[in-house]
Amino acid sequence: MRFSVLKHGTLLALLLTGVVAQGALSASAGAKFQSAEVRAFMDSLVQEDGFDRAELERVFAGIEYKQNVIDAISRPAEGKPWRDYRPIFLTRSRILQGVEFWNKNQELLARAEEKYGVPAEIIVAILGVETRYGQNFGSFRVIDSLATLGFHYEPRASFFRKELREFLIMAREESSDPFEMLGSYAGAMGYPQFIPSSFRAYAVDFDGNGKRDFWSGSVDAIGSIGNYLARNGWKAGEPIVLRTRVDGPGAQKIANQSKKPDLAPSVLAAHGVLVPDSLGPQDEASLVRLEGAYGEEFWLGLHNFHVIMTYNRSRLYAMAVYQLAQEVRSAR
After folding, report:
1. 180 in catalytic set
2. Cβ contacts of residue 238 below 8 Å, gap of 6+?
3. Segment among 19-28, 164-173, 313-322 with least mean pLDDT
4. Quick count: other Cβ atoms within 10 Å of Cβ 34?
5. What is the pLDDT of residue 30?
6. In which band, very low, low, confident or very high, does the pLDDT at 2 lie, cut at 50, 70 and 90?
7. How far apart are CA 57 and CA 95, in angstroms?
8. What is the sign, positive or negative, of the torsion defined by CA atoms of 301, 186, 18, 55?
9. pLDDT above 80: residue 57
10. Residue 154's CB: how many other CB atoms inside 10 A?
11. The overall pTM is greater than 0.85
12. Count of beta carbons in the 10 Å neighbourhood of residue 274
């Protein structure tokens, strides 16, 4: 099924081959997307985004409710302590595959680093954490994941409905089949696992072939990660995170309290945090506490650490990217 559009967004055709090939959905699955909320959502797509109502109804007839999506989002890996989270991504095989990926794409990575100011190892590490350098995009149809979460996962329903809207618009803009794109249980797509709103805002055509493609190769993904981090404030040449020590209980009061670097060195020191000489009096950081394999670890998260967190708002994620980047660079 593919959206084909005129300049002003009028749908010329919606090819139904994909839906027909799927066969008739079970009554229980179909009923999941026939509620008043779904109808109101389609109404807004028609009124605000220029979709054709009849064609939208055919699209929604092809969407499948996925209970395993609900199950997966209810137990994310980021809920693990660092001592269990780190071994998932900091493995010998993932490090060596990162070296191989870097060597294979060194010219593209160098071009991205020059254009966006983001180190090659950070781009490599994000691809390594997200999809093991493109080996695992996820096996969920993106449209099924977003619709399931948007209408059957109350804690974040509004967010996922927004992403479903962005996805449908994206499929129309890119003349792509919305039923062919695979991703994670949360609707993240392709090599870099961008959600649809991030794709529309930050994806770039890095190979110049006229299409932003995250599935058939890594070129656009490399450029898009660099563009994403640069536009979210990456500061070239600045450090990311610094290991530190604490003295006394005061540090516990400020640890993991902010997802922004908003603590001055004087505040850190007043709470018993060892402030390294490399941190100037005007530099700010957050205090990150992790449950490591050998006890608590304390780190100072600097500006670029929190830029990585815009990709995934998890301290564990940002630390995994940072440490994998360092390991890949060292192994190379």
Report:
1. no
2. 302, 303, 304
3. 19-28
4. 12
5. 57
6. low
7. 46
8. negative
9. yes
10. 8
11. yes
12. 15
DSSP states along 137-180: --SEEHHHHHHHHHHH-GGGHHHHHHHHHHHHHHHHHTT--TTT
Find the distance separating the first CA and the last CA of the chain, reported in whole Å. Answer: 43
Mean pLDDT (whole number) for 301-306? 98
Q: For residue 5, is pLDDT > 70?
A: no
Strands (E), the chain: 3-5, 11-14, 140-141, 182-183, 241-244, 286-292, 295-301
CA distance 162 to 19: 24
Contact status, residue 141 vs residue 151, Cβ threshold 8 Å: no
Taking the C-alpha atoms of residue 212 and residue 220, their distance in angstroms, rounded to an integer, is 6
Contact by Cβ (8 Å): 63, 143: yes
- Whether 194 shows a pLDDT value over 60: the answer reads yes
Are 311 and 240 a contacting pair, CB within 8 Å?
Answer: no
Q: Identify the burial level of 29 via C-beta atoms within 10 angstroms of its C-beta, where 0-12 means exposed, 13-18 middle and 19 or more buried.
A: middle
Measured from the Cβ of residue 330, the count of other Cβ atoms closer than 10 Å reads 10
Q: Give the active site residue among 113, 121, 130, 174.
A: 130
Q: Residue 33: what pLDDT?
A: 87
What is the gyration radius of the CA atoms in the chain, in angstroms?
22
C-alpha 225/C-alpha 231 separation (Å) is 10
Give the pLDDT mean for 226-234.
98
Structure token digits, residue 97: 């595959």
Structure tokens, 181: 């794109």
Cα dihedral value 166, 168, 174, 177, nearest 10 = 140
Mean pLDDT in the chain? 90
pLDDT-above-90 percentage for the chain: 84
CB 8 within 8 A of CB 50: yes
- Ramachandran sector of residue 166 (left: φ over 0; alpha: ψ -120 to 50; beta: rest): alpha
Res 6: pLDDT:
30
Query: What is the signed CA dihedral for 79, 84, 88, 89, rounded to 10 degrees?
Result: 90
